[in-house]
Amino acid sequence: MKSEEMKYNIDNRIRDNNIYIHTNWSVDKLKRYVCAFLNTNGGVLVFGIKDDGLNLILKKSVFDIFSSYKNIVEEFSDERNIQYGKLLIEDHNVEYIEVGKSSKEYMYNGVIYYFDDVKREPIKKIPITMFLSYCQKDKGIANIVEEKLKENEKRLEIFRDIREVEYRDKFSEFMQTISDKDFVLSIVSDRYLKSRNCMYEMSELMRDRKYESKLLFIIVSDSDKKYCLSEDLPDDENQGVGAHIYDVGQQTEYLMYWQEKEQKMKNAIEKINDPVISRNQISELEVIKTIELKIRDLMSILFDRKGISFEEMLNTNFIDMMDIIRNKK
Fold first, then answer.
1. Paired strand residues for 45
2. Based on CB atoms within 10 Å of each CB, which residue in 42, 61, 152, 243 is the most buried?
């Protein structure tokens, strides 16, 4: 950091991730800020400047910054992301510790800290949990969504059935844990709305009376096909992947799709004509009936809310969604 840059920040009262310090802070307090900066987006601790809430005033620094810096570097073992500097501004020595964003998560005294942009102070990490609901054939899009969301918010813990359900685990038991998550993010594509497992996931979520407040969604459009992995592209190159849920005619087709599934299962049970042998088919029929009922509610919710396409979300770095996630009460 150069003197001119620091002076510009002072003259223009730029705070952002700059913390101006005049009173004597304990090394413990400094370490909490450094830990928070490392885990968030970096920041600067500036010593020798009084912040009265309105103006930034040059003052003499009141304690040994360099020894504190060495103690901090030893604590976090990260000289690359934690730098000490000294500037001369209007005959005042201004010292600072500049902290860069780390690629790994740091802990101090057994606690993970993050920097709260509003309170401008370290806060303890309280995980925000999210279940990512998507069709496996849309995993290319799901991978991008997970990567971008976690880049934006390190407190976010994202659960996906492909990771959480181990070999021989009961998928149905895992599905019952969906309602425990803070959010469910649905990547709604044509294939998603026709997927038995995806619609079963939504059915489990919709058992929770608060599910509408937990539900986030991204609407996949046909133009988003370019984000699909090559092995997951439709066999027909002219076939789209978009969910046209804002078209009443298309909504009707999804409802008819599940009605046909129900009728086929009924026909299979009638052919077997033995309730003991066909118990799996009977159980599956109940699942399909539940899906048929719930998909109407789901499309009604999506129809009433503003839907944003995946590409639009990507281009804005998921800013609207991140506002909702970070403001979780």
1. 19, 97
2. 243
- Write out the two tokens for 304: 């009433």
**In this structure, are 150 and 68 located in the same domain?**
no
Helix/strand/coil for 66 = helix
For residues 86 and 164, membership in a common domain is answered with no
- Token pair belonging to 247: 């078209």
183 and 81 within one domain: no
CB-CB contact of 308 with 319 (8 Å):
no
Beta bridge partners of 86: 95
Same structural domain for residues 292 and 318? Answer: yes
- How much is the pLDDT for 77? 87
Q: Which domain holds residue 212?
A: 128-326
Q: What CATH code is carried by the domain that includes residue 161? A: 3.40.50
Neighbouring residues of 202: CB distance < 8 A, sequence distance ≥ 6 = 133, 186, 294, 295, 298
182: CB partners within 8 A, 6+ apart: 128, 129, 130, 214, 328
CA distance 207 to 210: 9
The C-alpha atoms of residue 124 and residue 146 are separated, in whole angstroms, by: 23
Entry pTM? 0.68
pLDDT digits (tens, 9 = 90+) for 269-290: 999 888 888 888 998 999 999 9
Q: Which helix (H) or strand (E) holds 214?
A: helix 211-214
| CA dist., res. 185 & res. 287, Å (int) | 22
pLDDT of 60: 73
Closest CA to 310 of 223, 212, 231: 223
Domain co-membership, 117 together with 159: no
Question: Within the chain, which residues score under 50 in pLDDT?
Answer: 163-169, 171
